[in-house]
Amino acid sequence: MVNYRNRRVGAKIMREVNEILKRHVRDPRVHEVTITDVCVTGDLSQATVYYSILSNLASKAQTAQLGLEKATGTIKRELGARLKLYKIPELTFERDSSVQYGEKIDELLKNCLQSSSDK
């Protein structure tokens, strides 16, 4: 069960990680990365950070994942300086598939509308 504190901490981590990626991480592999959501465990020891990238290429997704994994230490150190938490959660990065899912739904709807207008 996700309570108010977990959602609030997740939202704060999301804002801060986006800011850290823009200003402190100089790795070119993560320049196109946008943090879309953060899910924090009940005890705040683990945080799953969901991200999206502009490209649909699998190679870009893999390089972005490697860049984020490489930058985890820097991100966690910066979070420690910015957040007033007893312990900063361990960060795990996962690509957000909801963007691709939304694009697929849009494509299906467009095809459905085109086929109905052709009749």
CATH class assignment: Alpha Beta
Number of helices: 4
How many runs of DSSP E, i.e. beta strands? 3
Low-confidence stretches: none
| Count of the separate structural domains | 1
- CATH superfamily annotation: K homology (KH) domain
**Termini separation:** 49 Å
**Looking at the structure, what is the overall shape?**
globular
Q: How would you explain this protein's 3D organization?
A:
This protein is an alpha+beta fold. The chain has one domain (4-118): 2-Layer Sandwich (GMP Synthetase, Chain A, domain 3). 55% of the residues lie in helices and 17% in strands. The protein has helices at 4-23, 58-70, 72-82, 98-118; strands spanning 34-40, 46-52, 90-95. A three-stranded mixed β-sheet has the order 1-2-3. The longest helix has 21 residues, at 98-118. It is globular, with a radius of gyration of 17 Å. The termini are far apart. The model has no long low-confidence stretch (mean pLDDT 88).
SSE map:
Layout (H helix, E strand, L loop, with lengths): L3 H20 L10 E7 L5 E7 L5 H13 L1 H11 L7 E6 L2 H21 L1
Parallel strand pairs: 2-3
Antiparallel strand pairs: 1-2
Helix pairs in contact: 1-3
Keywords:
4 helices, 119 residues, three-stranded mixed beta sheet, alpha+beta
